[in-house]
């Protein structure tokens, strides 16, 4: 019993260290209070943003090679096999996944994130252990497993991203140029058709943000890519990308 208790304590401590490390990453490079990042990221994940949105940056679009598709098909097969059990949300929760900003209204897709896997994804890649699961939420609240999300460190290079998920098949994205409102501001500051703050905000520069009394962050979290492994069996459904901008010549701010 003592050995078991020690084991649980060690596991809990490791999970706590991983969580603190992950949130420290957010705090150092992006947001002073990590909890603030949840509604901000949730807002940006809901879509409905203008094509000229300056708050999303994409990797350059590339034409896929045969090798790209071979790697992509292998990744999808691995992800499907490893995560199909998570069709039952309770199984996902048992394995350490937790809903991320699920209370933010209007979300059609809910992210369930595993802190330990997110932490490990900074330095290694395992297609069978995605940091986040994507659930489509119906009007009645029912959740249906739709896909997975892979992540990488904020400073990952294009070569490193391509080694994980081929850039010829998918465009990774990251959240950039975010101006958060003054501390203590109500959530309503993100609402409306033309908000000033957050991922839909009109403020996209450090100087504008400072003038508005906000807090500017060049990047929020690391690189991300969605893979809709349960959206269908064809490649188009799996790799459908609402971010795609085929005229890209470089890192391109675009729709999320």
Q: Would you mind describing this structure in some detail?
A:
With 256 residues, this protein is an alpha+beta fold. Helix content is 34%, strand content 20%. It has one domain. The chain contains 8 helices and 8 strands, in the order H-H-E-H-H-E-E-H-E-E-H-E-H-E-H-E. Strands 2-3-4-5-7-6-1-8 form an 8-stranded antiparallel beta sheet. It is globular, with a radius of gyration of 19 Å. Residues 1-34, 46-51 and 243-256 have low confidence and may be disordered.
Question: What does the secondary structure layout of this molecule look like, with pairings?
Answer:
Layout: H1 2-29, H2 34-45, E1 56-58, H3 66-83, H4 89-94, E2 97-100, E3 109-114, H5 115-120, E4 132-137, E5 143-152, H6 158-164, E6 173-180, H7 206-211, E7 215-227, H8 235-238, E8 252-253
Antiparallel strand pairs: 1-6, 1-8, 2-3, 3-4, 4-5, 5-7, 6-7
Largest sheet: 8 strands, antiparallel
With strands numbered from the N-terminus, the spatial order across the biggest sheet is: 2-3-4-5-7-6-1-8
Global outline: globular
First-residue to last-residue Cα separation: 50 Å
Count of domain modules? 1
Instruction: Please tell me the overall pLDDT.
Output: 79
Secondary-structure element order, N to C: HHEHHEEHEEHEHEHE
Q: Radius of gyration over alpha carbons?
A: 19 Å
The stretches of 5 or more residues where confidence is low (pLDDT under 50) are 1-34, 46-51, 243-256
